[in-house]
Design a protein that fits this description.
The structure holds 2 protein chains of 2 kinds. By secondary structure, chain A is an alpha/beta fold. In chain A, 35% of the residues lie in helices and 27% in strands. A 6-stranded mixed β-sheet of chain A has the order 6-7-8-3-9-10, sandwiched between helices. Chain A has a 4-stranded antiparallel β-sheet with strand order 2-1-4-5, with helices on one face. By secondary structure, chain B is an alpha/beta fold. The longest helix of chain B is centred in the middle third of the chain and has 32 residues. Classes of the chains: A alpha/beta, B alpha/beta.
Chain lengths: 314, 367
């Protein structure tokens, strides 16, 4: 999808928000375009939730500006609340109400016409596969189904923009992938989606992502383009003793940056160093490997690099 | 309106599905009234008593006979010295002792006024006072008999008659008060816990992000809990009637109107508590604390007039204080509305104030 010149739906300009002494979000600027899935990716405590809550008008705005379809969130919170579907971090359902009662309740809260809601709920059942459970209490649903119900609840009023705060947190991989399928279908229908996640592997599912850490968006672009921003050659070592290899490399001072990655280590070389020196170093210490060579950097590699940069900057 | 209605319907659904609520509304009033209504009493009976007879005269024997015959006292015998009485007091076996001094009859014959000493266990001040009252009036009666037999002194006699509660039965005073306390409990505590629960579940955040808004949210919470409170209040009235046979002397409609004003203030308190706490436990603690506070300063146990002036001023901030007196007034005396205007104004004012404060705090979004 190419939305680079699309209409801006959500926008933050130099937005900052703190809780007392703690600066949760620092001078963040970014925008979400019509019809795209924008992912805010980063570890917990990075400021994602604060940013999302502010965007949906739940927090007062201290510094900077937030816009929804060109209108100030601070000045028109009512408009934002009517038009955006927001799903908080913990899926918020009434456990003691049935699936259908939950759906109808949220429809009523948005003043959706009963007839219209009826049709919409059927449509959502189609999406989520919750139809057979419509009379079951929400509390008796599995984690994945609860999450689909929570999503459905905020879709009853057919919002064109939805904001999801870590919707796939703590859900099994199958349900996660099903959930993303639903998001893709929503995007096909023209819905704009802003979603936060701590799972790096979900970055590739978004049209564009913002890497968020320490209250800042460190980089923001399409995931493929972000990967190509990686400034140096990245090497990978696959080994049975990743921890020992990492220790050896850190001691050797051959690497600009090295970190554990899955079953091995990813590293960049210090200037004027060659891969051969790394091999020699490992051999010297009797550490074996099954693969050593250049690899394609992923979001996680970029993230770790940027995070370190952030650490030095402060 | 549609949104508030949706919220109210949702609340009632949830209330209906929570067994504990039903128990609190329909069973608690009966159990509380039966247990507490029978247990809490100012009446003092069966006071264990001995007489220390230092005189061994016909007069002292008459005193002993009269006291031992009375069912108010649990007569434990005669002792020769106060030393023995002291020991019995220490062991907690007696609560009162009469000490008749040596030469009692002789002095009386000489026209002197001999003294009888009364020793009372003063740990429970209230019971001690009541016991003393019984003993004094008993002694007075005996004395009157003696004077009557010797001289015809025409003293004025006081014949008491107690209005509104002729038998001075504690239950008439306590049962209406208990209904008020139950109402305080259910409305303030359940409201606070209910809202904080939504906070914990995250549903409150979701509700705030909808066009529902703070004011509608509060109205949507007030309506179901007001209904709940009134239902429980009615169950309390019925229980008082069935269990203790206490009818409402005054206007029932007025009683409900006053209950409604009272509920406004307790709901306001409950909602306010929910805005300053973030877990159900915290809400429970704060609600309990305020309830105990309200209870002790309500005049339920100790009449407000008996409290130190500063404390009396503090009670003016306590909605339960007003409702407590309103309940007793309407229940026992059938007092009409015009005499209860100050109470109505105080409760109504406090209700509006608390609900406004809570709404304002709610309106400041999530922080």
């Amino acid at each position: 999808m190419c939305n680079s010149r699309g209409e801006v739906v959500l926008e933050a300009r130099n937005f900052s928000r703190s809780y007392g002494e703690v600066k949760a979000v620092r001078e963040v600027s970014f925008s979400v375009l019509r019809g795209e899935i924008f992912g805010l990716i980063g570890p917990d405590g990075g400021g994602k939730t604060t940013l999302l809550r502010s965007l949906v008008s739940l927090l007062s705005i201290e510094k900077g500006e937030l816009f929804f379809e060109g209108r100030s969130v601070a000045r028109e919170p009512e408009l934002v609340r009517r038009r955006i579907g927001y799903m908080p971090q913990r899926f918020s359902l009434y456990q003691d109400l049935t699936v259908e009662e939950n759906l109808r309740f949220f429809g009523d809260l948005f003043d959706v016409d009963r007839k219209e809601a009826e049709g919409r709920i059927e449509e959502l059942y189609g999406f989520s596969g919750l139809k057979p459970f419509s009379r079951r209490r929400a509390g008796a649903l599995s984690g994945g189904m609860k999450q689909k119900l929570a999503l459905s609840c905020m879709l009853v009023h057919s919002p064109r923009v939805i904001v999801l705060d870590e919707p796939t947190f703590g859900v099994d991989p199958v349900s996660r992938s099903e959930f993303w399928q639903i998001l893709f279908r929503l995007r096909e229908g023209g819905t704009t989606i802003l979603v936060s996640t701590a799972y790096m592997d979900e970055a590739g599912l978004c049209d564009r992502v913002g890497l968020m850490y320490g209250g800042r968006i460190l980089a923001s672009d399409a995931p493929e383009l972000l990967n190509s921003r990686f400034p140096r050659d990245l090497y990978g070592i696959r080994t049975g003793q990743p921890h020992l290899v990492l220790d050896a490399l850190e001691e050797s001072r051959l690497c600009g940056d090295c970190h554990l990655f899955g079953e091995g280590v990813h590293l960049t070389l210090e200037e004027n160093r060659s891969p051969g020196e790394v091999e020699a170093c490992l051999r010297e210490r009797n550490l074996g490997w099954t693969f050593f060579g250049p690899v394609k950097p992923g979001i996680e590699d970029l993230f770790l690099l940027l995070m370190k940069g952030e650490g030095h900057g402060d | 309106m549609g949104r508030i209605k949706a919220l109210v319907i949702k609340e009632f659904r949830q209330i209906r599905r929570t067994r504990a609520y039903l128990g609190l509304i329909f069973v608690a009033p009966f159990v509380q009234l039966i247990v507490m209504g029978s247990a809490i009493t100012n009446e003092v009976k069966d006071i264990p008593l001995i007489v220390v007879d230092g005189d061994h005269s016909p007069a002292s024997r008459e005193i002993i006979n009269r006291f031992s015959a009375l069912s108010l006292f649990d007569f434990r015998g005669v002792a020769d010295s106060t030393v023995r009485a002291d020991r019995l007091f220490d062991r907690g076996e007696i609560k009162a002792a009469l000490v008749i001094p040596r030469g009692f009859e002789r002095d009386m014959g000489r026209g002197l006024s001999p003294q009888i000493q009364v020793l009372i266990d003063g740990v429970d001040g209230n019971s001690a006072g009541v016991s003393l009252g019984y003993i004094t009036s008993m002694a007075g009666e005996i004395q009157k008999g003696w004077i009557g037999s010797r001289a015809t002194g025409a003293g004025a006699e006081i014949v008491p008659r107690f209005y509104y509660n002729p038998g001075l039965e504690s239950k008439l005073n306590f049962v209406p008060g208990l209904i008020g306390i139950l109402l305080f409990m259910i409305t303030s505590m359940l409201t606070a816990i209910n809202i904080v629960r939504e906070k914990e579940l995250g549903t409150l955040e979701q509700l705030m992000a909808t066009p529902l808004g703070g004011i509608r949210l509060i109205v949507g919470k007030i309506i179901p809990f007001t209904v709940l409170g009134l239902v429980q209040f009615s169950v309390g009235l019925i229980a008082a009637r069935l269990v203790f046979g206490i009818p409402v002397a005054g206007n029932l409609l007025l009683l409900y109107f006053m209950a409604l004003l009272f509920i406004m203030s307790t709901l306001g308190l409950g909602i306010f508590i929910s805005t300053v706490t973030s877990t159900q436990q915290q809400a429970m603690f704060v609600a309990w604390f305020s309830m105990i506070f309200a209870l002790l300063l309500s005049g339920f146990f100790v009449p407000v007039g008996n409290m130190p002036p500063l404390v009396q001023k503090i009670t003016l901030l306590n909605p339960l204080r007003y409702f407590m007196s309103v309940l007793r007034e309407i229940y026992l005396k059938g007092t009409p509305f015009r005499y209860l205007l100050p109470e109505a104004a105080a409760m109504g004012g406090m209700g509006i104030g608390l609900i406004t404060a809570a709404t304002l705090r709610f309106h400041r979004r999530l922080e």
